[in-house]
Amino acid sequence: MAALCESFTLCGLGPGAGVGLGGGLLALEPGPEPDHVLLTDRGRTATLFKVSDQKPLGCWSVKHRQVITCPVVCNFETHEYVAVHDDKVLRIWKNQDINLDKVFKATLSADVYRIHSLPNGGPVVLFKGGGVRTLDVLLEAPQQEIENIISDEVIKWSEAFMEGQQHVLMFATEKDGEFFVYVQKLKTNSLHKYKLEQHELSKPTSFTAYIKNQIITLLCLYSNDSVYKVLIPLHQNAEDEQQTLPTSLLLNLSVSGSVLKATSFVVLDKDHVAVLGSLAASGEESKECLTIWNTKFQTLQTSKELPLGTSGQLWCYEEKFFFTHGKVLTVMMYKCETSSLAAAMGKLKDTQTPDVSSFMDWNTLGDEELVASPESQPSVALKSESRMTLRSKRSTVAKVQPDTLSVGQRLIKLKDVSTTVFEEELRQLMSRAQMPDFQAAIGCVITALVNRCKTNPKYYPRNLLLQIVQTRDLSYSLCPDLMAVALEKKDVHLLQICLQRFPDIPEEITYACLQVFLSISEACLQRTDVNLESISSYIDTEFNSKEVKTEIVENGFNAELEQDICDSKSPKETRVPADGESCPVGPQKAALLNAVLCSAYSETFILPHLKNLPAQQAVLFLRYLYYLYVKCSENIITTLPGVHSPTISQIMDWMCLLLDAHFTVMVMLPEAKELLSKLHKFVRAQVRFYSELNKIEGSLYELQRLNHQKDCQTYSIEVLELI
């Protein structure tokens, strides 16, 4: 049994993505760590991402008019990166390198087709003429002559394996409509050439392969929408003549009369393959989708429609699919269980096996998928375009008891019930904490609520949604449409809770929340229920006036520096706060903005969105950040008191982001000039203050060392003279 699970966006690919991926992807390769991937675009840039954080860790570009011509790979032995630009120029660098002009460079004597790197072996370089060298051998003499093996043939695909202690490189070529396969073992320097069996009116369009028990299994995707298998023994006599490899049909990509026009595929295990393509039914518009097939039983296990379209590229690492969807690179988890006939038919009795329908959109499921045997678990629910026609004896199946229905099936039955019944049934469904894959089921419940909101604009179960988000450990990727609906309804309380609890909110949504929070009026917010825990200790929550009740504590500045910040009297005197010390927004808006400040983000991805923030809102937001900065500096604390309060690092980071995005506008706006001047003076005073602290750092360290050396068991008074 196989299932497609939740998905999330790794990065944008459009012109505003900020990581140089506007030209599309050339390839995706594993990074130096298990959770890292290397993205190479069809231009000048390579980017290292940490997948779980959806965060770029490094980005490198070659000079203008230079083009990276093969995917950047990681040398797992040295933790260096290897790239080739302009076909012949080799570059090698490390994480700390920034400018590729200053890293190692070697010009080779022949054009490079691809570099393959394996975790247990060094990189292997395949040249366009078919010559192969390990990177170490190539670096000994970069200008060494490279033999031309394939003459007029063109390389279409290549892959590398480790068999024991030796590299095995395999590549496929094409010449005049005929396809050839080469297998080279580098250790013994042996090369074997094979010819692929031809099929009438069809030819290979994509390849993938794996090695097991000294046998290479080559899978070929043909233009007739079928997958063929070729077995190649690794050990062959050197004197053997060129052989023609017979192909055997492994899989026919058709479902109920619909044909999957595949563009790429990957092997998941010995019994499962994933195929990306367009499902075309007669008389209907084709739909791009990602599918998982069981090759052992010739069945479609699950599918996911991709309405925004793809580039036709598919990669798979660490039980995750990577593919472009619209203008973003999407990551989707999957699960593959033991291959058996019961699993392929959706009848596997295993309480630990998650129900695939938990991951589906219940609006797309048909009535015929509600049928299940009363003695077994519910059958796997596939989407309408991927229904199986193996059995359809609905008339003879007994009525299913409500307790045996899967999450997806129960949601379908609730599709047309009244609102009261609908919400009550969902509450009962969520109370079943013992159900398998409970988190995915809760995500499915929220999806059901959101879908009903979309179909019925007057329906919005605010309290139920709040209850679910506050009591369950959810994520944005588990219910991606929830915050979109909350933004449409301007439900600021729900947005605040989501920002505080969801760890994987895209920067585009974070910016949308910020814009809504800044644009909504104070009068409207005073009538809104907002969590004020993050500001209750330093802002007057009554907000009857602009005066803010706060304790003023001397922070170590001398009188001259205090005067530089603002004209103030002795800190011990009671006074009305100056403009710089009063909060520019009400308590409700301050609490909402704090939720944005504490949310996770990547500077690279949020900066393009911040540039679209209206000037007046940008100034207001900067005023609030300046206010928080002053509050933190008054008591020399790194975090404001309260729950979910921002730290001084977060405040400073957002200040820098906002100034980077709007500095020109800030300088031109009259109302912003005074604010920038105050900010400049305050930061200058801070720099002076910490500069003075740095001067006595050595003395303070020596004092600490002396205290550690002495072990005073009794009370004592010591006088230490600092010189």
UniProtKB/TrEMBL annotation:
- Keywords for the protein's UniProt record, in alphabetical order: Activator, Nucleus, rRNA processing, Transcription, Transcription regulation
The record, for Pfam families, names: Nol11_C, NOL11_N
User: What is one GO biological process annotated to this record?
Assistant: maturation of SSU-rRNA
The record's GO molecular-function terms, alphabetically, read: RNA binding
Provide the primary localization.
Answer: nucleus
Nucleolar protein 11 N-terminal domain residues = 1-335
Localization per Swiss-Prot or TrEMBL: Nucleus, Nucleolus
Nucleolar protein 11 C-terminal domain: residues covered:
413-722
Under PANTHER family, the record lists:
NUCLEOLAR PROTEIN 11 (PTHR15633:SF2)
Name of the featured protein: NOL11 protein
